[in-house]
Amino acid sequence: MREKKRVFVRGIGSYLPDRVLTNGDMEKIVDTSDEWIVSRTGIRERHIAAANQVTSDLAVEAATAAMNNAGIGVGEVDAIIVTTVTPDVAFPATACFVQQKLGMGNCPCMDMEAGCSGVIYGLELAAGLVQWGRYRNILLVAADKLSSVTDWTDRSTCVLLADGASGFIVGGEGEGAAAELLGNHIAADGSGAEFLWMPAGGSRLPATETTVVERQHFLKMNGKEVFKRAVKGMAAAVDQLFSNCQVTADQMRLFIPHQANLRIIEAIAEYLNLPLERFWTVLQRTGNTSSASVGIAWDDAARKGQLQRGDLLTLVAFGAGLTSGAALLRWMR
Ligand code: UT7
């Protein structure tokens, strides 16, 4: 048996569109208040893509930032993985449009759908490809334009959702890398698949006039159920990861959780008996950016000097599926 290769995140980058919608702006769209949104979620503002900016455009911005951060060019990328729930079109894969827009050569391109756990699922797949030894650099991009599936008449969801992208170069070369991936755990509980979904537009309920009139082409969420399962799912993912890797929560310099709701993050901090300061949050100004969220928060923490060489960090996420996952990394810069 060949020895498994070590896996590194060689570069990281993120992108938020220019346009900002504040809670004050949301008050003009639906019957809500800044007080309700802040006290129930922690969110104060979110970034929304321009009408002509599609998911692959967001992805290209984050991909370019990640390649620059890794110090590699498009010619060194062997494969593209895009994790998204808002692909440019139903098919082909958004990764193909990313390749097209980056002017890249003939590398394999694939999409992966794992809701807000996209980064952690994507890392699992990318790491496997690198460990297999046939791929040197995988471009992993987590991108979502949730505003394209947001029902702007539904106050229970529209105040939460936002757009953004994060990108990573995952490879086997440790020199100059941002971090080493030390462990990863992913899971899913399909029994909750209909708690967070878009009912129409697939083979189950193809688009018709009725599906449009009934607003079935928008994201629907049972918030209370997802909230409960998010806390349980993320706690379980961290427990499993830590048990697999033989580490403990207090060894972590930082947790980078999915940025859906500050109350969910507070519940995880309480479960792990750690102060909230150990959990990096950006949701106050980004809202819930779905697949992209963990990477946007991680990139933000890194750029703000929150990580020192040798620090351990844990990414943890939960999303549509219902998926969950956690990743253990060591910061190397
Ligand atoms: O990214 C994937 C993972 N997603 C998540 O983790 C989201 C998980 N869920 C949540 O974060 C929370 O459940 C929400 C933020 C979505 C909702 O918070 P909640 O504390 O569970 O509120 P609720 O749904 O129980 O609603 C409480 C009240 C309701 O009014 P009544 O029935 O008590 O009169 C809602 O109609 O708040 C009302 N409400 C609002 N009021 C003002 C719901 N949305 C709004 C709003 N503004 N935007």
Number of individual domains: 2
Strand order of the largest sheet: 5-4-6-7-1-8-13-12-11
As for the CATH topology of the largest domain, it is Peroxisomal Thiolase, Chain A, domain 1
Global Rg? 19 Å
- CA-to-CA gap between the ends? 32 Å
In oligomeric terms, what are we looking at? single chain
- Helix % is 25-40%
Q: What small molecules are bound in this structure?
A: oxa(dethia)-CoA
Outline type: globular
Task: Give a quick rundown of the structure.
The protein has about 325 residues and is α+β, with helices and mostly antiparallel strands. The chain has helices at about 25-30, 35-40, 55-70, 95-100, 120-130, 155-160, 210-215, 225-245, 260-270, 285, 295-305, and strands at about 5-15, 20, 45, 80-85, 110, 135-145, 165-170, 180-190, 195, 220, 255, 310-320, 325-330.
Fold topology:
Blueprint: E1 7-15, E2 20-22, H1 23-29, H2 34-41, E3 45-47, H3 55-70, E4 79-83, H4 94-102, E5 109-112, H5 118-132, E6 137-145, H6 155-158, E7 163-171, E8 179-188, E9 196-197, H7 209-213, E10 220-221, H8 223-245, E11 254-257, H9 262-271, H10 283-286, H11 293-303, E12 312-319, E13 323-331
The site of oxa(dethia)-CoA has 21 residues, from α2, α6, α8 and β12.
Task: Describe what you observe in this structure.
This protein has helices at 23-29, 34-41, 55-70, 94-102, 118-132, 155-158, 209-213, 223-245, 262-271, 283-286, 293-303; strands spanning 7-15, 20-22, 45-47, 79-83, 109-112, 137-145, 163-171, 179-188, 196-197, 220-221, 254-257, 312-319, 323-331. The protein is an alpha+beta fold and 333 residues long. It has two domains: 7-178, Peroxisomal Thiolase, Chain A, domain 1 (3-Layer(aba) Sandwich); 181-331, Thiolase/Chalcone synthase (Peroxisomal Thiolase, Chain A, domain 1). Helix 3 packs across helix 4 (94-102) and helix 8 (223-245) runs parallel beside helix 9 (262-271). The protein is globular. The protein binds oxa(dethia)-CoA. Residues 32, 36-37, 40-41, 116, 155-156, 159, 196, 223-224, 226-227, 230, 260-261, 264, 288, 318-319 line the site of oxa(dethia)-CoA.
